[in-house]
Design goal:
197 residues; 6 helices; five-stranded mixed β-sheet; 36% helix; alpha/beta
Length: 197
């Protein structure tokens, strides 16, 4: 069972992102505030769950959360400010979308740019330790998957419905054969190939 609270804070927002290592598409982030004492069965790091489990949990999270928000930074912005800063920006935008004011922020990972005057803690593998971060990881992942499934209809040759923009061999081969789309991150390289961008 993941930890539900952090120290003595009552309103804690968990933040996580999805899509940081992709060649195409935005990076998504979510911020989630869960009630104290909230227990959600099977809640865990989104990477350890099946697609069916993630979407089932998304509905539960959105129903029980005190507040939640999802935001994104598109590929053009990523190319301008780099993926690390884009990840921070996406999390800031998700926090901006909250109606509630968190007393504290828990971040999955080891780095973060301070948000307003709110204290935060970076937790390595936090999505497997704290329920609010796990919830944020699920929302970020599922909403990004929805986006990639949608744009796959525009560009089916890149197999985004299956690879979600990550650097699979089929995706890399498609870039070499068909070139870049308006959704590709030009600041990234295709693995196993010479520098293309």
């Amino acid at each position: 069972m993941l930890e539900n609270t952090y120290k003595n804070y009552k309103i804690v927002a968990g933040c996580d992102e999805a899509g940081r290592g992709c060649l195409a598409g935005p990076v998504f982030a979510s911020a989630v505030i869960l009630p104290i004492g909230c227990k959600i069965d099977t809640l865990n790091d989104s990477k350890k769950l099946t697609e069916k489990q993630r979407y089932k949990l998304r509905d539960i999270i959105q129903e029980v959360a005190i507040d939640f928000s999802v935001a994104m930074v598109d590929n053009d912005e990523i190319d301008k400010i780099n993926i690390l800063n884009a990840s921070f920006l996406a999390m800031h935008r998700a926090l901006d979308g909250l109606k509630s004011n968190p007393e504290f922020i828990l971040i999955d990972g080891n780095r973060f740019n301070k948000y307003k005057d709110i204290n935060h803690e970076c937790i390595i593998k936090g999505d497997g330790k704290f329920s609010c971060i796990a919830a944020a990881s699920i929302l970020a992942k599922t909403y990004r998957d929805d986006f990639m499934n949608y744009i796959d209809k525009e560009h089916p040759n890149y197999f985004w419905k299956k690879n979600k923009g990550y650097p699979t061999k089929k995706h890399a081969d498609a870039i070499l054969q068909y070139g870049f789309t308006e959704y590709h991150r030009k600041s990234f390289n295709v693995p196993g190939q010479t520098k293309l961008f």
